[in-house]
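A note from the maintainers: we've had questions about how concatenated examples are separated. There is no special marker in the raw files; a new sequence line simply starts the next protein. For clarity in this README we add a label.
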Amino acid sequence: MSSNFLEIKNATFVASKKNKIDNVSLTIKEKGEIICLLGPSGVGKTTILRTIAGLQDLKSGEINLKGKTISSGNFNLEPEKRNIAMCFQDNSLFPHFNVLENINIGAKRKNGSKFNYSDKDLIKILHLEDIQEKYPHQISSGEAQRVSLARSLLSRPDLLLLDEPFANIDTSLKEELQKKIKDILKEFNITTIIVTHDSHEAFFMGDKCGILLNQTLKQYDIPYNIHHEPNSLEVAKFLNRGVFVDVKVVETDCAVHSLSHPILGEIRGKLVNNFPAGSKVKLLLQPEDLRHDDQSKLKLEVVDRKFRGTNFIYTLKMSSDEKIPVFVHSHHIHQHEKSEKFGIKTPIFIDHLVCF
């Protein structure tokens, strides 16, 4: 018998002909891990959650929870016997119960799991004090999501499934709630799968992340590796963290590898993928990879500037079809306008040379 907390083996999840994900395999080894499934809208993320919860049949493969099969191609354990709680993106509250009553439905599920927070505690944490007596039709979609989350936590599940839990919540409140919910999940060792289309949310919340694209699980790894070492051009483009430029591999025998670009010159670092010298590849350049230097001889024209609060992202033109982004702290001594020349520190060194 496997000691893994959750195993999904060669599973095919189907909601419709277009909404289908094939041959998914992933493992949650330890109780209390948080997994984020990241992908575009419509890829089938919610279908995976609904199938794990027992609300949809598994087309093929197998899902095991705590060493027991809960879904396979010919078996589907009833949802009420799984001790899995799912917090839906859409309003799933009971319309004839007010907010407090909806939350306390979760408390009626007794399974012996430790959870020391009361309904009042969660109402305070999730900022629901002012709507306790209101009914679902009287509250916003973001408030309904928070009510559903409180109800799910009070049910003390073996596995918690959250479908875009922060999607309809104001930005000013979102980061606070993400931190508080993550602390609660870790404090009480609640194993959780979160579906999101927001990579920043996935990388903060998840111990591991799965990238779902074009009906398959493309990568399943810790957030650091997915960000710095995407395993395909497809994953790197989905994360949208930079641009690709054509370079030539010059040196791969030393500890520090070397690439060359006709304008940027020598680019050094550690190649994530192995390529022989002489190979022509596409290098991922992210805004933080290049450093600004007013004294540099390498200067490029500014074609765009985006203010991000703590930083600016400058877009620089290398040729008619190649533009690159550069991160600059917002407290830099001066700002650069469009059409101005912008210096890049050389030689360029990038820790992770992600090439395809």
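[label: protein 2]
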Amino acid sequence: MNWLNRLRNESFTLALLATVGLATLAPVRGTLAGIADVMTDLAIAVLFFLHGARLSHSAIVSGMTAWRLHLLVFASTFLLFPLLGLTIKPLSHWILTPELYIGVLFLCALPSTVQSSIAFTSIAGGNIPAAVCSASASNLLGVFLTPLLMSMLAGRVDGTADPIDAIAKIMLQLLVPFVAGHLSRPRIGAWIERHRSILRYTDQSTILLVVYTAFSASVIQGLWQNTPPAALFGLIAVSCFLLAVVMLLLVLLARKLGFSRQDEIAIVFCGSKKSLATGVPMAKVLFATGSLGAIVLPIMLFHQIQLIVCAFVAQRYARNNQRHQ
């Protein structure tokens, strides 16, 4: 990853930290909180409209043929991760708070990322069309699977929405704008491509807005008083454990099943990622406002760890590709 991409990722990390700090020192309250909530819903709809407009029909068609690759990615995203989340339950009582553990389960139930999965697959010299199709399909499946998985993994947590109601709300807020954007691509696709670098900041601004409103409500409810520093270190350890186990197993499985090197790269990056851009809006629908801060904290932390680790792994793949040429 070149210095410009590294700077962009680091600046977003700093912006996330600054947003959490702002919510801690000056949480939004009262009427302003209601206005911010409405603005957040609108921003999320615009975000997924743009996601739909960015996805080309040709990328879908060219990537759909790699069905074995997609099955392995989906199995990692929606089966392996949740099972790993359940395995740490016995440890969760002494290294995590109950709210953080629910956040870890939510992290494990989320779909893959789109932009970063494709970007790292490209850097590493992997199967880009398959990565586009797999990551995009993962996000669409997540609309239905994430609420159902959370219901299975965590049961009825206080303040959580009914899974069926949650699916309906997520479809309305995420899937409908996504489909509308994709259907609008013939008219606005060229403009989207020309302004792709600028529109990236729409994603980041929306995430920051949702994080600010989520942490504001949680801070008011006593987030930091109820989250000891030891639990934050435990969360870092859990995030590193999840990412390391999944990436290692995906490499071993891809080679055992006879995938090409290009397919292996797409599998590793699409199957090990969890989407912050999708996760934060989903959390807003699924969970009570006061618990949102602790629940989105694991995905925020995992997001930063996966960017750092995957940047290193992508560069290693790229160097190995050059040696084999």
